[in-house]
């Protein structure tokens, strides 16, 4: 089966190129000069990309499908969540298998394989959350690296749930130094946050906005600094997930300026949403914006600093931390106390569009858009050049993106399993037009030109990952 994507502008981290893309079965086989070369190519399907961008499929390296949290589960299953991802131009996710205190790593990982197998619309991999850093868990780290699970998440937040103390973190980092794995860090001072939150609740301050007020940005900065020092002592790289605050970014930038292997991602919610207008929305509406770290105040420079961090590469990747919960019966668990609101915002469907708005606004170049959403995630997490690249031999994960169209975001039109949208009413300048996953068109158009989903559960394959290219 041959597919030719013709007359488009191919966007890579190196720039823009007028090239046609030839796909055979699941792989890209050639990039062709459009002037006459492609006229001699026979193809079963021809996609006319005139006036459109051709980019590598998006890679979202931070999702939480079916995550148990606060007495409920994230509302997207691997089937619904990966289907929504495909609608938004994401063709690979890396989700998190979860180990909690007292549980065996292997049994927990197997349960996550069972959730995903046969259900994913796009390709997927796993990180491993270590919620109980024991001798047994440390030995399992070595085994998992050999099996293609090469990254491990630790928490400085959520005491009693996922929290690791400095000694446990140091030991995990020392193991990563030996086995080549990458430690991913949720950096917030959870011990101090719990004290502040308890004091707020005792004063009767239980509305959703206090979720943000009781998690000050300085405590993200402090934890980020502390984790970097532990990584230096261990001789280990460290990758900070969902960085939200200027204070944390300052620590990452300073470490990178010293030449250290310190990396970080941010998420669209920290670039667009804020504490006052969203988390502080009237009534209980702010519960829809409860996530950790929280949305930051608009009265400081967090948004601008994060966009600048993306430009300078102090922030390497944009992920979503997609962890959706419905307002009804899920977020409502915290009607009387913000501490009981399940933490998470859904956004796997909108990441490519929202970061493209940075291009429209002049914050990022087209090349940087592709780099932060596709190429760097693949390199960082051991998938390059199979993923994230428009190169001969790479998987044919390709998005045709129309910069002249518009995309309204609404609960009425999104495909995530949620009863609200955190980005309700935003109109995107641009639209995902066509999506190929390993050469198969999974988002196409019907006879009337309306976009349609052409994939199915089970189309996605599990990805056995190598070591990060940034650490070799």
SSE layout:
Blueprint: E1 2-6, E2 9-12, E3 15-18, E4 20-24, E5 27-32, E6 45-48, E7 53-56, E8 58-63, E9 68-69, E10 72-73, H1 78-87, E11 90-99, H2 105-116, E12 123-130, H3 135-146, E13 151-155, H4 166-179, E14 182-186, H5 190-202, H6 209-213, H7 217-234, E15 238-240, H8 246-257, E16 262-266, H9 268-272, H10 275-279, H11 302-312, E17 317-318, H12 351-360, H13 366-380, E18 398-408, E19 427-437, E20 440-445, E21 451-453
Parallel strand pairs: 1-6, 2-7, 8-11, 11-12, 12-13, 13-14, 14-15, 15-16, 16-17
Antiparallel strand pairs: 1-4, 2-3, 4-5, 7-18, 9-10, 18-19, 19-20, 20-21
Helix pairs in contact: 3-4, 4-7, 7-8
Would you write up a description of this structure?
- The protein has 472 residues and is of the alpha/beta class.
- It has a domain at 57-385: TIM Barrel (Alpha-Beta Barrel), CATH 3.20.20.140.
- The chain contains 13 helices and 21 strands.
- Helix 3 (135-146) runs parallel beside helix 4, helix 4 (166-179) crosses helix 7 (217-234) and helix 7 runs parallel beside helix 8 (246-257).
- It is globular, with a radius of gyration of 21 Å.
- The two termini are 36 Å apart.
Short description:
The protein has 472 residues and is α/β, with parallel strands linked by helices. 30% of the residues lie in helices and 24% in strands.
What is the fourth-level CATH superfamily of one domain?
Metal-dependent hydrolases
The count of DSSP E runs of length 2 or more, i.e. the number of strands, is 21
CATH top level assignment of one domain: Alpha Beta
Rounded to the nearest angstrom, the distance between the terminal CA atoms is 36 Å
Give the spatial strand order of the biggest sheet.
Answer: 8-11-12-13-14-15-16-17
Query: How would you sum up the global shape?
Result: globular
Q: Assign the structural class, choosing from mainly alpha, mainly beta, alpha/beta, alpha+beta, or little secondary structure.
A: alpha/beta
Q: Stretches where pLDDT falls below 50 for ≥5 residues? A: none
Q: What is the CA-based Rg, rounded? A: 21 Å
Total of DSSP H or I helical runs spanning 4+ residues: 13
Helix content: 25-40%
């Amino acid at each position: 089966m041959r597919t030719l994507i013709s007359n488009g502008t191919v966007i890579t981290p190196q720039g823009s190129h007028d090239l046609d893309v030839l796909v055979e079965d699941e792989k890209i086989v050639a990039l062709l000069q459009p002037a006459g070369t492609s006229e001699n190519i026979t193809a079963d399907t021809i996609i006319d990309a005139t006036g459109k961008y051709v980019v590598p499929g998006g890679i979202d390296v931070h999702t939480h499908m079916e995550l148990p949290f606060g007495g409920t589960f994230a509302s997207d299953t691997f089937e619904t969540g990966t289907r929504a991802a495909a609608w938004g131009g994401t063709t690979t996710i890396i989700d998190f298998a979860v180990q909690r205190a007292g549980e065996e790593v292997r049994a927990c990982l197997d349960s996550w394989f069972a959730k995903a197998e046969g259900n994913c619309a796009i390709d997927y991999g796993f990180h491993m959350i270590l919620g109980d850093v024991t001798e047994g868990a440390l030995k399992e780290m070595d085994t998992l690296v050999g099996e293609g699970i090469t990254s491990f998440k630790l928490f400085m937040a959520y005491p009693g749930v996922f929290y690791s103390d400095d000694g446990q973190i140091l030991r995990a980092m020392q193991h990563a130094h030996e086995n080549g794995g990458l430690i991913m860090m949720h950096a917030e001072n959870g011990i101090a946050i719990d004290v502040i939150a308890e004091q707020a609740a005792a004063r009767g301050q239980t509305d959703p906005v206090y979720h943000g007020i009781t998690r000050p940005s300085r405590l993200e900065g402090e934890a980020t600094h502390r984790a970097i020092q532990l990584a230096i002592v261990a001789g280990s790289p460290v990758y900070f997930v969902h960085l939200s605050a200027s204070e944390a970014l300052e620590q990452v930038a300073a470490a990178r300026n010293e030449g250290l292997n310190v990396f970080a991602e941010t998420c669209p919610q920290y670039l667009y949403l804020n504490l006052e207008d969203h988390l502080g929305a009237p009534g209980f509406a702010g519960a829809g914006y409860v996530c950790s770290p929280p949305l930051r105040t608009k009265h400081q420079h967090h948004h601008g600093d994060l966009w600048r961090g993306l430009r300078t590469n102090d922030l390497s990747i944009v992920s979503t931390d997609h962890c959706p919960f419905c307002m009804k019966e899920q977020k409502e668990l915290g009607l009387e106390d913000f501490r009981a609101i399940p933490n998470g915002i859904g956004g796997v469907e909108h990441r490519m569009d929202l970061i493209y708005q940075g291009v429209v606004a002049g914050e990022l170049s087209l090349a940087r858009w592709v780099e932060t959403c596709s190429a760097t995630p693949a390199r960082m997490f051991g998938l390059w050049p199979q993923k994230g690249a428009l190169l001969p031999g790479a998987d044919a994960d390709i998005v045709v993106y129309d910069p002249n169209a518009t995309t309204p975001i609404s609960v009425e039109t999104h495909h995530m399993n949620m009863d609200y949208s955190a980005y309700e009413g935003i109109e995107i300048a641009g639209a995902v037009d066509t999506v190929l996953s390993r050469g198969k068109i999974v988002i196409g158009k019907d006879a009337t030109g309306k976009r349609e989903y052409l994939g199915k559960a089970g189309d996605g394959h599990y990805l056995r990952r190598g070591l990060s290219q940034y650490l070799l």
